[in-house]
Design a protein that fits this description.
Length: about 290
């Protein structure tokens, strides 16, 4: 993942340092409070493809970096970030425009309607701005750092390695099993092709195990989301996190309700209504 973030992701996205200011100061203060080894803070231009908002951290050991989607940022921070990006991409030998200003190029024709009014003279309703407030962004990061504090990423990595070992161990036991091939219409004369054995074992023999393991990982992910929410709540960010969850759900076009059984089996994150309820009354235990 570190290789992807450092060398592959920059080929498709633009990463710029988060500008100095209140947001950066609060994030660094939170990292220091939790002894999180923060090295760099980036903003990624996720808005070039969608309005999806997110934040994540990556890095090994004492070399952690935090990445914020630009759609997550408040307007003033986003403007400063874009200014920083424009300044860093400007060519040093660019020749400034010395054309004298005649006073008419930028002037608005008095006969034209204002930019915020329609042809009937009525003001247009401005779009609701995207992004969270500074405190809401910090609350979202407090949730993400809850995953770090509880070692959720490392636990997931280790479970993934155990799962891979089981999959390939079982495959090794059946890779040269002539009866398995014959049951699927292959004969010994076909030399029992290894790729066919891989498909049979993974897609058919291990299907019940894969379903149960996937269900276990879904339950684990939901529990970890509640744990991270509780972590942010214990830091004093409950109200800000609730506001941020509502905004992110709207921006990411998430549906706020779902059948509990369907959600239990399919959603890696609890629905936003359940998370808000847990933040309110603490009914979801993190221990």
């Amino acid at each position: 993942y570190a290789v992807y973030a450092d060398f592959i992701a920059p080929l498709f996205d633009s990463f710029t340092p988060l500008p100095e200011g209140e947001l950066r100061d609060k994030i660094e203060a939170l990292a220091k409070r939790l002894s999180f080894p923060l090295k760099k803070l980036y903003v990624v231009d996720g808005s070039t493809r969608s309005s999806h908002s997110n934040a994540y951290f990556y890095g090994f050991f004492n070399n952690k970096r935090i990445v914020l989607f630009d759609t997550l940022l408040p307007a003033e921070v986003l403007a400063a970030s874009k200014a920083t990006q424009a300044a860093s991409s400007a060519t040093p030998d660019a020749t400034p425009d010395t054309t004298p200003d005649t006073g008419t190029a930028d002037a608005q024709d008095s006969t034209e309607p204002p930019a915020n009014a329609d042809t009937d003279g009525k003001e247009k309703t401005e779009k609701e701005p995207l992004g969270c407030t500074i405190d809401e962004v910090v609350a979202v990061l407090a949730h993400e750092l809850g995953h770090w504090s509880h070692n959720h990423v490392f636990q997931g990595f280790m479970l993934g390695q155990v799962n891979m070992f089981i999959l390939f161990y079982v495959f090794g036991q059946f890779a040269r099993n002539a009866q398995m091939y014959s049951e699927f219409g292959f004969t010994v004369e076909d030399n029992m092709p290894i790729i066919i054995g891989l498909i049979i074992v993974f897609n058919y023999l291990l299907a019940p195990y894969s379903f149960l393991f996937g269900f276990f990982m879904t339950l684990r992910s939901q529990r970890h989301e509640y744990q991270a929410d509780r972590f942010a709540k214990d830091l004093g960010y409950a109200d800000m996190l609730k506001d941020a969850l509502v905004k992110l759900s709207k921006q990411n076009l998430g549906f706020p309700v779902a059948d509990w059984l369907y959600s239990t089996f399919t959603h890696s994150h609890p629905i936003v209504v359940d998370r808000l309820r847990a933040l309110d009354d603490g009914s979801k235990k993190s221990k």
